[in-house]
Amino acid sequence: METLIDKVVGGFLSAIQAGTLTIAPFGVGALGVLAVIAYGTRQWPLVMSSGAGLGDALAGFLLLVMGLGITLWILTSIIPMGDALYQAALTIGLAAAGSHVTVDNLRSPSFLLSMHKVVTKPLEDFILAHTGWAVMWNGPTMFSFWLAELAIYCTFVGIALHVALIQIEFYLSILSAAVLLPCVVLTSSTFLGEWVVGWVLGCTTRVLLVSAVAAIGVPLFQGLAVAPGAGAGADPTWVEALGVVAGSVLFGVVAWIVPGRAANLVGSGLGLSGSLIAGVAAGSARSLLLVHSLVQSAQRVISPMLSRR
Hints:
The chain is mostly helical.
């Protein structure tokens, strides 16, 4: 699964970047059309106005041309700029935490997923050492340790998926900016351009905070690992297993919630996260339960009718 998630995310990002290159010319064309409309609605009335001087007309024209030039420059370089923005957010987040984690590590969700092996290794060693006839005397302990290992694994899967969704959403915002950014030229459509800029900044904030949280958490994974208090060769206890589960879940909650809350303060967007996946899964489960209850109701209604016949 670790290699699979990297391939899936890489496929998504490659497709999104290819789509951005495809639709970027449409953004340049939209910029030209909106530039003509903006000149006709803003600059031409100023030129024809009897109260405006030559300086006002030239200043308005230069301001319009400068805004169009900056927007055109961003549109023609939007993919390199997006990559540089993502790289800068990761670098600043890692530098803030002072961790040995690299940018390439956080670009691969499998890196975070593989960290669960470090945390659950003592639990897994205990389970493997007490298989066979030893299960008869250690059944409840092995079952509780298996549940603890499963909870830790699910937590790190959620963190890896969260990081993957943040990457996908960031480049989706860059793709949208390639088309909607020219809307800032025209006053009546400025809200679309401001919305997509807020989306990009919100995603950048999420990348920055997730990288900082991950850089802080990864060095602590060794501390989260179950270290038996009786010594290196002793078996872990239930209390130690619950402690490492609580620490892993706490790390997962912080990685899910804090970046999303900060991004909502900066700008709006899709808000893709691990909680969204959980919500979709819960919605699917509720739909299945609804279908099952409808089938049972239909059977209760039809069965008496058949019995009368």
